[in-house]
Amino acid sequence: MCDFSEDSILKNPHEASCEEIFNALCLEIALYYKPLGGKFAKSGPHITFKKQNLTLKLCFWSSSFNVKGEHVSLEVIPNFYCSLLPDKKGYFFGYPAVFNTSEVRAKNNFNVYGVTYTEFLEIISLIDNYILTALDAFLNYANTNQYLATIEPKLLQYALDNNTGLNAFLKTLDKC
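Predicted structure:
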């Protein structure tokens, strides 16, 4: 894929509503990840990836402050679940920690009005480098520990201390 879909309003967004632009970009992201097993849901737009006992729900949010012809917000919010965890429907990790390493704070909110294909690929890069790599890391104990060691320490400690499910997940790693 090297451009948006043939009939995508992203190619000419000037007459489109903010909602149409947001929905069109969510669809383009979903089409990009479909060959990798991503399942798209239009309602509360999100893509779901499943690996072993893990599920990644990659949610897309927008804003009520969008301005037609100027600004359409797309926020990428990942949530990780393990089917072996009974509490909180198995939730154990996600936003904001996934975007905060000890070295960098990744941007997960984009103005997608007039988005170019190059800018679209920046969003894809964020998903690939911060979110899908985390999903792969959570598949085994050694990779999980290595991954968690990169997370900003205060956010990691918060996740461990505040019943997010991360502690319970770490105890199930040999089963995932």
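Summary: The CA atoms of residues 100 and 127 lie 14 Å apart.
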